[in-house]
Amino acid sequence: MAWFILVVSGVLEAVWATALSASKNFKRPVPTIIFGVALAASMTGLAFAMKSLPTGTAYAVWVGIGAVLTAVWAMATGQERATTARVLLLLGLVGCVVGLKAVS
After folding, report:
1. Predicted pLDDT of residue 61
2. Measured distance CA(65)–CA(46) in Å, rounded
3. Distance between CA atoms of 66 and 73, rounded to whole angstroms?
4. What is the pLDDT of residues 36-75, one digit of tens each?
5. Are the CB atoms for 62 and 39 separated by under 8 Å?
6. Most distant CA pair in the chain, distance
7. Which residues of 2-28 are buried (b: 16+ CB within 10 A; e: fewer)?
8. What is residue 100's predicted lDDT score, i.e. its pLDDT?
9. Where do transmembrane segments lie in this chain (predicted)?
10. What is the full DSSP assignment across 15-83?
11. 48-68: b or e for each residue (b if 16 or more CB lie within 10 Å)?
């Protein structure tokens, strides 16, 4: 259960990071609200997962999921260029996250 909550929290990290950018310095209300709700839920889930998972592993997996999904979303929406190097590096990050899960 802790791993599932950690994954959902990582997804929510990508949501709040994307909403933070879309909020334009907290000047747009809807993205600002989404940012606040997703941030609180993401941190709460991370805290819950860290009760039963090692702190370093839980944090690395949470950050990895959030970073990869945020970058993939930016590439999918055209905000960032999708290059071979970026895709390969993101795949490497996914491999590291899966590896951490495998050894925990």
Report:
1. 93
2. 12
3. 10
4. 999 999 999 999 999 999 999 999 999 999 999 999 999 9
5. no
6. 43
7. eeebbbebbbbbbbbbbbbeebeeeee
8. 83
9. 33-50, 57-76, 82-103
10. HHHHHHHHTTTTTSHHHHHHHHHHHHHHHHHHHHHTTTS-HHHHHHHHHHHHHHHHHHHHHHTTSS---
11. bbbeebeeebbeebbebbbbb
Question: Which residue has 């993101």 as its token pair?
Answer: 90
Asked if 70 and 14 touch (Cβ cutoff 8 Å), the reply is yes
* CA distances, 43 to each of 59, 63, 66, 75, 101 (Å): 10, 11, 12, 25, 19
CA–CA dist 96, 90 (Å, integer) = 10
